[in-house]
Design a protein that fits this description.
Blueprint (H helix, E strand, L loop, with lengths): L12 E2 L3 H5 L9 H10 L33 E2 L13 E15 L2 E8 L5 E7 L3 E8 L8 E3 L22 E7 L4 E6 L4 H4 L6 E6 L8 E10 L13 H6 L5 E4 L7 E6 L3 E7 L7 E6 L2 E7 L2 E7 L4 E3 L4 E7 L4 E12 L5 E14 L23 E12 L2 E6 L10 E4 L2 E9 L5 E5 L3 E7 L2 E2 L9 E4 L4 E8 L3 E7 L2 H5 L3 E7 L3
Bound molecules: CU-O-CU linkage and copper (II) ion (CU).
Copper (II) ion binds next to loops.
């Protein structure tokens, strides 16, 4: 079966921003950003007439007292959502969810997509910007949009606990200020195991106040989906899937199943790769060959100290920003290590290239570049404690995944006061692993199995807890509201591994 390349446009260099298209504003940032803005903006540009959006009537006019906007650089990867609002400091986009029939590996599959593309359009803005998303639900079922990792106001969190689901063929406007820079993503929060598997997800890239002088900024989703000759098999129908989540048999890299994505670079270039794992259940293991690379950012943004690993483990929901430097011409590859059977039916890790970069001769080895200031880690000692046990029992309708012996919490699992620093201990009393995710806040990973953790630095919103192991977090609960805490193996979440942590302002 020789699949055709899909309808997607994953290889296009797309860069849109109000400022690029309007040519507004000189860079307010100094020094290193100038290069980046210039070289990154080359391919940018919509010839769109975005000056007259009806929705922008109430936005501040471009000539008010707001500081000049630093133009956003180009992003490689899924097409970028067009900013309909010319005002600086505001990014206003339209997003529609609808069904989409597509061919993957020659198989016709009924998918769902934002804006008709898979992954959905990347939303690109800068820290401090106001983001306005006009969402239309063209599906025949309700949905919502959750902004994974972002500290949004609670009523904008896009879960059915904080908003009425957007009904089939209904609309909703999300609006909030972007408090954090980094790599985030958006996805529905209803029937997640179906809607996300079918393709409803996209990246939300929030640029730092100044851009690093990278030669390319790449958004790379590595998804794992399950396909049969008949398309997508029924959901959560097997004990295996209820136990381990839906493990796929096909990698989709920015929507492409058949072959590695192709890109070009030059010797001496330094790039930023933003890696996202939107799979239902698969933890991915990545490596890069043919280039020098290190981790410069994680869920909560840029790290104070970049670090190196041989293989990068990316749990479902997590993000990693990598610095990729080309010291020599050749081919650089992003490899996903996948378990397969060898000739003797033994399980082995096979390297599957998912991105290939042809590196042309250039100026010799790459120089170090200066990254914008890291996100400062709060230096706070815990003043509260939450202990959570994860287990699984046989329920009336299949497995029930539980937190502290209860499935699908409706009242709070824990209530904190805004500003609390909570020591959260998670004990996995079952065999399968769990990527545990907390909405609306960041935490640090402090211990695994009572040992101090030194190799998972930075602020996170998702942590992987292997089977029968424990993890200790330090959570900075600074954002008031009722926030979901759940497993990001979507089958587990749908089968009960879902609770809320309430963060309440002091009286
Ligand atoms: Cu990625 Cu509850 O979310
Ligand atoms: Cu789980």
């Amino acid at each position: 079966m020789r699949p055709a390349r899909t309808w997607m446009r994953p290889l296009l260099m797309v860069g849109l921003s109000a400022c690029v298209s309007l040519g507004c504003g000189d860079s307010a940032g100094a020094g290193p950003t100038e290069d980046a803005a210039e070289s990154d903006s080359l391919s940018g540009d919509s010839a769109e007439d975005d000056a007259s959006s009806a929705d922008s009537a109430d936005a501040p006019a471009a000539d008010t007292e707001l500081p000049p906007e630093v133009p956003l650089g180009a992003l490689w990867g899924p097409g970028v959502a067009e900013d309909l609002n010319p005002a600086p400091g505001v990014v206003e986009v339209h997003l529609e969810a609808r069904t989409k029939s597509m061919k993957l590996l020659g198989i016709k599959v009924d998918m769902m997509a934002f804006g008709g593309q898979l992954p959905g359009p990347t939303i690109h803005a800068r820290i401090g910007d106001e983001l306005i998303v006009h969402f239309d639900n063209a599906l025949d079922e309700p949905t919502t949009i959750h902004w994974h990792g972002l500290r949004v106001p609670n009523e904008m969190d896009g879960t059915p606990r904080v908003q009425d689901p957007v009904p089939a063929h209904g609309s909703f406007t999300y609006r909030f200020t972007l408090r954090d820079a980094g790599t985030f993503w958006y996805h529905p929060h209803i029937r997640t195991n179906v809607q996300i598997e079918k393709g409803l997800y996209g990246a939300l890239v929030v640029a730092e106040a100044t851009d690093p002088p990278v030669t390319a900024d790449r958004v790379i989703f590595v998804d794992d989906i399950l396909l049969t000759e008949a398309g997508m098999p029924p959901f959560n129908a097997t004990m295996m899937e209820q136990m381990h989540g839906r493990l796929g048999n096909t990698l989709l890299t920015n929507g492409v199943a058949a072959e590695p994505l192709q890109a070009t670079a030059r010797e001496g270039d330094v790039e930023r790769w933003r890696i996202l794992n939107p799979s239902n259940a698969r933890t991915i293991q990545l490596g890069i060959e043919g280039a020098r690379w290190r981790v410069v950012g994680t869920d909560g943004g840029l790290l104070p100290v970049p670090y190196s690993v041989d293989r990068l483990t990316v749990a479902v929901g997590q993000r990693y920003d990598l610095e990729v430097s080309y010291d020599a011409p050749g081919t650089a590859k992003l490899i996903s290590w996948v378990a397969t059977l060898d000739a003797n039916d033994q399980v082995v890790d096979a390297p599957l290239p998912v991105v290939e970069v042809a590196v042309a001769p250039g100026d010799g080895p790459a120089d170090a570049i200066a990254w914008p200031p890291a996100v400062p880690l709060p230096e706070r000692e815990p003043n509260a404690h939450l202990s959570v046990e994860i287990d699984v029992v046989q329920g009336a309708n299949g497995l029930e995944w539980r937190l502290n012996k209860r499935a699908m919490w409706m009242d709070p699992l824990f209530t904190a006061t805004t500003g609390d620093t909570v020591r959260i201990q998670l004990f996995n009393r079952a065999g399968p692993e769990h990527p545990f995710h907390l909405h609306g806040q960041f935490f640090e990973i402090v211990r695994r199995n009572a040992e101090l953790v030194t190799d998972e630095p930075g602020l996170k919103d998702t942590v992987l807890i292997p089977g029968m192991e424990s993890v200790e977090l330090r959570a900075y609960l600074d954002n008031p509201g009722r926030w979901m805490a759940h497993c990001h193996i979507l089958e587990h979440a749908e089968l009960g591994m879902m609770a809320e942590i309430w963060v309440v302002d002091p009286e």
